[in-house]
Amino acid sequence: MASTTPPGTTSEHIGHVVFITAAAAIGGFLFGYDSAVINGAVTGIQEHFGVGPVEIGVVVAIALLGSAAGAWIAGGLADRWGRTRTMQVAAVLFAVSSVGQALPFAVWDLAFWRVLAGVGIGMASVIGPAYIAEVAPPAYRGRLGSFQQLAIVLGIAVSQLVNYAIAQTAGGDVNNELLGLEAWQWMLGACLVPALLYLLFATVIPESPRFLVAVGKSAAARKVLAEVEGEHASLDERIAEIEDSLRSERRPRLRDLRGHRLGLLPIVWVGILLSVFQQFVGINVIFYYSASLWQSVGINQSDSLLISFSTSIINIVGTFVAIALVDRIGRRPLLLIGSAGMTVALAVAAWAFSAGVPSGETVRLPETQATVALVAAHVFVLFFALSWGVVVWVLLGEMFPNRIRAAALSVAAAAQWVANWLITVSFPSLAEWSLAGAYVGYAFFAALSFVFVVSKVPETKGRKLEEMG
């Protein structure tokens, strides 16, 4: 964290808020883990069930429809049950689905469990940023909000490492048996461990002070604020600010988001488009399909899993860069840097993939283009991680007015999952048609995201949540 602390805030209290923020962000870890674990299992599922690119695209992407549904309902549940209780429900759903995914008897059965997992992940994706924004002191909110994305990239990296270890233990082939199950089944079943950890931590962290004030528990809210901001912070003033922002409000509903422009308030459209652009640059193609992608251009199964892990490490490095900068230079500058870098990297990757030469059922890249493609993919992940990966989650947690935050965040997160689904379900068929063409499309959206940030995205650095409007 920063070398100095704001008046009334001590390192002890910052340590406590870091702990509860990290605990809440385990939902992001589940998001990342589930997103990437399927990467190692794709080849095994295809061979085990004998399905083609369209079917595997549906199986991989269908979890995202569940996530959209989970994100859609999460705001209402969080306002009715509380943030921590909603986290617990999400953890239980993910734990149950992890066992189901490991033991499918048909491809449609696997798809069902992936939808259920998606619901839990979608709920966690909404509650995590909202909870973190509501407990974090304003001076640290950007960095603490970044924990959500840090947890996501750590989940991705850990799942890639676990996948690699399981594949190696099974002799380098994900369809080989290991203690009675095929290796890809163990990959999916391993999701149970982080789900149980999330459930455990969601039972020990305090409830959001804003929710406590909203349900008339001001004394409990004062206690939580003292824990996260310090006994010497202006607790009466902070409670009064929250009460003022909530006094004339009712439970946010979707109708509260209505506006004159295309039926929604402008700030809600900004949140939706931030979510859409975050996905339309194609980042999750790297994490859902990179193993099969690199196998399709001539890299063996074991090495492709190792390459996938290396991109996860780059993802973590970029996330730490974002955490260091988000409260220093602001949200908008980071987004602009990321959009520019991603545009160039994706365009270069498209050029490299355009040199592919058919070789049986796969495509071979010349040595130079293969190296360029690998480097470009890593550069793309780096620029995404230090910008859009972190900043979108930070903005979604803090940019909406208090009176509509939960509902608006649910809509924006649902849009993100739908956009993710569109990219994920379309990639196998697009890649079969033209891998280079797919990456040209992602580069186009990266360039368009630059224009969007310049013209529409507000800066929220240093502002209290009660000031958003």
Automatic annotation (TrEMBL):
Residues 20-461 form the Major facilitator superfamily (MFS) profile domain. Gene3D superfamilies: MFS general substrate transporter like domains. SUPFAM superfamilies: MFS general substrate transporter (SSF103473). It is a multi-pass membrane protein. Keywords: Cell membrane, Membrane, Transmembrane, Transmembrane helix, Transport. It is found in: Cell membrane. Its main location: membrane. Belongs to the major facilitator superfamily. Sugar transporter (TC 2.A.1.1) family. PANTHER family: PROTON MYO-INOSITOL COTRANSPORTER. This is Sugar porter family MFS transporter. It comes from Streptosporangium fragile.
